Structures are given as C-alpha cells and as structure tokens.
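writing this on my phone so excuse typos. first protein, seq and then structure
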Amino acid sequence: MKKALFGMIYMSSYKIQLNIVDLHDLTILEKIDSPSFVQADSKSQVFEQDMDKICDAIEGFKLKLAEYQIKNYKFYGNEQLIDEMSASFIADQIRVRTGLNIEWLNGGQIVYAKVLSGLKSLNQDITANKYESTYLLSLGSAMINLSLFKNHKFISSWSLPLGPHEIQQLAEITNETPNDPIDVISDYLGAKIDHLARQIKDSSPCSVIIQHADALNAAFLKEENSTNQISREDFDQFYNRLIEMPVADMIQKYHLEPTVAVHTIPNAISIHQFLSLLNVKDIYVTDLSVITGLLMLEGKKSHQKIASNDIVMTSAQNMASWYLVDMHHANQVRKFALHIFDRLRKVHLLSKQARTLLALAATVDNIGSFVNQQRRFEQSAEILDANKLIGLSDRDNEIVSEICRYQTINDDYSAPDIGGHHYRHLAPDIQLEVAKLSAILRLATALDASHRQKIKKIVLSIKTNNHLIIHAKTNSDITLERWSFNKRAKLFEDVFGIKVTLKQEGMNR
C-alpha cells in the first residue's frame, strides 16, 4: 500500500517540532525538533523572544516537507500560555516571515487531543487491562489533566493549573523557607488537588496511564514500545531518587531540556499524590501525546471510532449534570432542535459543524438556572465563557455560548436580544450563524415548555407560501407549549422570513 504521507508541525511553549507521518497507521517516519525556547516570565513574552528560532526552524521544516514531496500538512500551536492579542501578533509574524498559517489550540482542544491519545493507548497498547476504570494523568506546560474512562469510553476530565506562573510561585515560596522544599511543594499541590479529590468519589480499583512525563518515560519506556507497564514499587523508587536529585543531574540522566526539568519535580509530586488519591492497581507510562491525538483526527480510519465515543457531547452532558439541569428536558429539546435543523437544511444552509453546536447548546443552555432563574440564559453564557467545552475552538465555544444567551425572551429592555448592543459586537462571521441556531433552539425549547415531554414526535411540513407547520403528535394538553411557542416564534420568522405555526395532532393519527 502506498504511504499517505502527512506533515504535522506542532509548537509548544518548549519547542517547535515537525513529524513526518504515514496516515495509514499513524507511524511517525521522522521527527525534527527545534532548539528549546527560552521560558518567558509573562504571557506577552511567550514565543515572542524566540521568533528567530521559530522561523529558522520552519524554513528547515519546509525543506524537509519538500524533500518528502509532502503538500498535505498542518501547523498547530499551543495557545494555553498566551493571550488572544499575543496569539494574533505571533501568527502574523510567522505568516509574514515564513508564509505558513498557524492554527492555535486552546486548553479544551489540547485536552481533547490528549483524551484521543488515551483512547488509543487503551484500545491498542493496554490489551490486558483488568479494571473497569482507567485514568489518564497527562502532564503539560500549563495544566495537569486527569481524564476518566470506563470500559474504554470517555467519562469525564478535570484540570489543575501547573504552568510557569505556578512554578515561579513555588520557586518564591521554597526560596523563603529553611524547610524541606519537597514538603512545601507537596503542601502547595495538595491544596490544589484537594478540591479535585472531592469531585472524584469512585474508590474502585483502577488503572492509570501517565502521559507527558519525560523523566518517567526515559527511565521506563523502551524505544520500541509506546506504552509500558510499571509497578508501584518501580514508581516509588524512581520518585525517591528524583526528589533528591540536583536539576543538572536530572537533565543529564533523563536527557531533559532545561525548560522541561523545572517542571519535573512538581510533576512527580503531583503523580505521587494522584496515585495516593486513587485506588491504583496498574500503572502505565506512555509517550503517546497531544500530537498523537491530532494525528488521529487526520487519519480517516479514526473517525468512526471517534464518532462512536462523542467526547465533546459527553463533556457538555457532564456540565449540564453538574449544574443540575433537567436532563430529560435537555434531551427532548436537543431531539426536537436537531429534527428541525435536519428538515430545514435547504432553508438555513448551515454546516454539519453547526448542527453539532446546536446539539451542544441544547444540552447546556439551562445551566444558568443553577445561579439565577430570572436571567438564566445570560448566566449560562457567562458560565460557558469561563468553562470552555473540550474539543471546540474558541470560535465554536463562543457560538455555543451566544446561542444560549439569546434564548432570552424577556420583555425587559436590558435583556440581550438579536440585533441589540451585545449582538452587534460579535464578529460578523458568527452573527448570522448565532441568529439562525438561536431561532431553531427557541422553537425546540418551547415544544417542551412544561418539562414533561408531552409531545412525543414532531413532523414538519413547508407550504408553498413560505409557511412552516410543525405538527405535534400528542394526546396531552399542550396549552403551555403553544403559548411558549407563539412567544418564541418571532425570532425564527424574522431570521428565516418564514411564518411558523404549531398544530396538535393526536397520537392515533
């Protein structure tokens, strides 16, 4: 079989890397790293002081891509440690100097890629896993992520900040005390992990996969294997040696970049505390990474597996459950919204991705009720702005948030409204999409206004005079649904230029 070669350029806060990959089996044929970056003291300096190093590396990557005759490539960058303005400036600099366009990945997209690589470990490398629950403990330049899988299906994910800011804080604290710095770091991290520990209530035996632990990989991972099992005794001996080791010795023994070495002891202490928190029976180390997850998204064979394990929707449902959303109502609204979307494809002309965003919005639009019933949709948007759904770009997260915001139909003049002050400040390329999806979701929400799932089925018919009739199949009293529908229909009629009517039909018809 002819190789399907692909180029993956990935820029982390440590370095920029090119991987030459065969997409048929995701085999990495060649890997080229730039020299490591200088670690910045502030978000505005990340990458900026290394622009010459970055652009020189890219020019070398372009030559390598040409040598392999590869025209199919992607260039991703980790955006977790920089702000939006810096990201725009850096992308422009790179485009002007090299001609390449970078696609920034937010924290949620990074977690998504890590979860995908965790699934690959479970499905291919951990064939003898005996336990229902497996945790993926993934270390990174900005966050530590803990993801839970049950029976090889993604369940949930949590994040703990441990980036340059936290490392600098640890350095300041340990420099000011005569006590053992390891004890101080343990206390600092323990206080952060304690909040997460209260959310993890499952104490059943489990496995844990440790990802992005460079020193641990160097100690235990064989070159021919991407994943290897170690014992708790193996880890404890490694840990006890590591915490007594000077940084210079650590760099030499485990072949670490200096920028990675400063994270190594805090990361090891975090692993130690997580292993104590969980009822861990099997431990695995892996070099499968964010890049592995990104490559899985490129490989055509992976899409079917990804579709059967909808990580993004699971994260949305987790959020809805956390905020005590009525899930029977949310599921009904989502079902109706997607049915309306599918029947009106030739009317709204939106993409498949828009359909996904509509489904997510239908799941989480009512989370704001946990905070404030009166302004619940605005509260939902605020919560979503602060807690991004994993796997979505910043643009898609914003669309989901704004769809939720514009479910408001209050007569209060200060309430957000399509066409109002807040809406006019949205990026022009998302305004129409937000308006169309908000209008569809308003109708779907009205069809279960009582939260009692009275309407079992809907059938749509569009008349030649631009009149949409939604036939509600039910024998119940839907007076509340009809009243809500009439209030919520105006946006749909304004956006699509179609009159819409709700008609009840008995189940025997």
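second protein below, same order as before
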Amino acid sequence: MISKIKKATRIDWIITLIPLALVIALCGIFFVAPTASNEVLSKIRFFFGDTLGSYYLIIGLGIFLLSIFIACSKYGNIVLGDKDEKPKYSFFNWGCMMFTCGLAADILFYSFSEWFMYAVDPHIAEMGNMQDWAGVYPIFHWSLIPWGFYLVLAVSFGFMLHVRKCERQKYSEACRPLFGKYTDGVAGRLVDLLAVFALIAGTATTFSVATPLMASIIDSLFGMGLDRVAVTIVILLITCFIYTYSLLHGFKGISILAKICIFLFFGLLSYVFLFCGETKYIVESGMSSLGRMLQNFFELSTYTDPQRTASFPQNWTIYYWAYWMVWCVAAPFFIGGISKGRTIRQTILGGYVFGVGSTIVSFIVLGNYSMGLQTAGKADFLAEYTANGDAYSLITNIINTMPFAQMVLAIVLVTMIAFYCTSFDSIALTASCYSYRSLKDGEMPHRSIQLLWCILLIMLPIALAFAESSMSNLQSVSIVAAFPIGFVMVMIVWSFMKDAKAYMNSDNNH
C-alpha cells in the first residue's frame, strides 16, 4: 500500500493532465466543426511547411551527418551501460523491436502507394520520367535521414538512461547538461509538454493515414459496402484493445508481438517478390532507384524548389522530416532502452543495417510490383488514381492483381494490425514514463497510467477520422508539432555531445 502511495506521489500531474485536456478540447473541435478545423489546419501548415520549410531540411541533413560522425568517432566506443555489460537482446530480437516500434502500419500503405502519388506530381516530369524517379523518392524519404533522427536520439537517451543512470525518462532530462538547474523549472516543463504534444500529433497522423486502407481491405474481403469512416473507427478501437493488452504484459508481450509482426511482414514481401510475376523488374528497378538515390543524396536533401514550380519538397520531403521528428519523442527512447549493453557504434550502424535495410526492401518489393505492371502496360493504376484520387481503393485493386489475392489482403490486414500494436506499445510505454517524475532503470509505470495513455493516444485519430481530414491536413498535424521539437532535438544532441565528452575525459583521468 505504501509503495503504491509513493508511486502515485511521483506522478507528474501537469505533464499528464494538460495533454489530456488539450486532446479532449481538440477532439471536441473536430467533432463540432470538422470543416472549419480542417481549413485552419491547412493555413497553419502553409506557414510552417512553405515559409519555414528550409528549417526542417537543415535539421534533417545535419543530424544524419552527425550520426555518421558519432559512429565513426571515439564516442562510438562508449557502451550503453556498464563497461563489461553484454546486450540484453540478440541482434535479431533487438532489430525486430526497433524496426516495429519505429515504423507503424503506414510503411505498408506508403510502400504500395508512394510511387503513384509521385508519378502524377509535376516535379517527376521536371526531373525526367516515372521510371527514373518515382521509385527513388520513397527510398530517400524512408531511409538514411529518418533513421538518423531515431538513432542519434536513441544513443543520447541510451547514454542518459544506462550510463548516467538517470531516473527521469523525459526530453528535459536529456537537456540537463545544457540546461543545468533550469531543467527542473519552467524551461524543462515546457520541453516536456512540447514533447508530449508532438507525441500525440505523431500518433494521430500515423493512425489516421493508414487505417482507412484497413477499412478498404475489409470492404474488399467481405464486400459489405460498409461506411469507411465507421469501419476505420471500429478498427482503431480494436487495435487500441490489442496494444493495451500487450503493453500490460510488459516487454515480453511487446517482444512476442514484434517477432510475429516481422515474420508476417517479411513473409508478405517474400510472397510478392517470388510468386507475383514481377521479380526481374523488382530487382532491376530497385537497384537503379537505390543507386540514383545514393548518387543524388545531397541534392535531394537540400532541394527547396525556390520558385515553387511544383512545391514538391513542401508537399513531401518537409512533411516526412516533420513526421519522423514527432515520432522521435517515443521511438528513440524505446530504442535507447532496449540497446543496453551495446556500444554507441553498434547501435547506430546496427540500426542503419536493420532499420534502413528492412525499410528499403519493403518499398522496392511492394512499390515496384505495381510499377512493373504499369510500365509493362498490364494495368493502368495512374489513370485510376488520377480519376478518383482514392489511394486506399487503388491499393486494394493492386493487391487483387496478385495470385490468391484474398489471402494476401488478409495477410496485409493482419500485418498492419500487428505493426500498429507493436508501435503503439512502445509509444504508450514511453508516454507513461513521461507521467512520472522519476523511474528507476527497469521499473515500469503503474498499469492505470499505461491504460490512461493507451486511451489518450487513440482519441485524436478517432476525431480526425470522424472529421474526414484530407491527406494534406493529416500531414499538417505533424508539420506544426515538429517545428518546436526540432529546436529541442538540437539541444538534446548538443547536451549528449557535451556530457559524453565529459564522461570520456573523466574516464581517461582514471
């Protein structure tokens, strides 16, 4: 009884209740005035994404380059834990949990759809043609820079948790070497509130982007002509129940779910690659796209379209960097937590190998399957997309061209649910830790707090689904939330470099 009371007094009610009140207020606005709220979102998005877009690009490229420097420098030798500590998880288990926490079900949505969204964009025609560039941008937007965000912050948090043995698992604590005594004051509170708001925005975008695809698949499987919004909301509630159940069973539940998700995911990729008839095109087009992305990496990373001939970076690259930045509130904490016993070099380079490698394979296999049918004239997906703009129905139609299509649709549906559950396990766990003033290494938040966050994270996606927000407005939620988080990320990395340098100097003196 006494331990429960002690645990309750350690709860940070400001960080818990203010986001709760904000989410309830936003949900109310989206329910009461869906059209007006979408219009306001659109205007705010234009200001941040168009006027201040270069800010996101600079942070993206800067953090990626810094990740390579850290991995290759003397900082890379630091063990995240005691010096003789061994990794708690095997490379495969570690990679599974890292990959599934960092990428929710939207990787499947975008792997199928991103090439045709780009193919109809005027910028692709400016650069050359669909064959040369529509497969390049998906790989660029989901590989080196996004995982750079995760991995630099993961080692920063891992150092804080496992080397410095900090009991406050918060963004503000990661800034302590820079903030000093101000960490416990208004500055620290502001950083933590911004982090929690960004976390909620990231989950809202992720859930809202990909769940309509699940609704479309269910409609295709059962042909019941159900209302997509209603089905989407039911899917959100079912997913919430599954990831809540898994989370309440701790890391063991998360690890099992992550492995199931990975086997389903790679099983799907293997089936499409080996048995759907486009293997040669997938390999050759995938190699060409990967080579072109690497060859033009710095040009793609710094392109701003100053004359706005197509506004491609504003519509896509800036959105993606913002999207990954808001996810950085949760995923790197989780990656840092499970990386105990690994060196900083192993964490960064291993993360690039497993995370980037798996992501690239997904886009090459699933994207090039349908692009192969398009270029061979076996189907005209672009005409269908141009006619109705419904990416969700088009993906369902793409899957229906595969052998045993009903089976594939069912596997995609189950894999998406597994991805969502593993991702939101880690997010809800991180958010629960934010509700505490301090938590010892390995200590779990109280189940009631975990349950509160599981419910809180699902509320805004339901409101956005109800308001039938457009893809652009869903992107706006992340772009707005990421703006202040960019400053915080820079401060965290600066703090880590300062603290790690002091740690190595004190170590050398001994």
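Residues 1-7 have pLDDT under 50 and may be disordered. thats all i got for now
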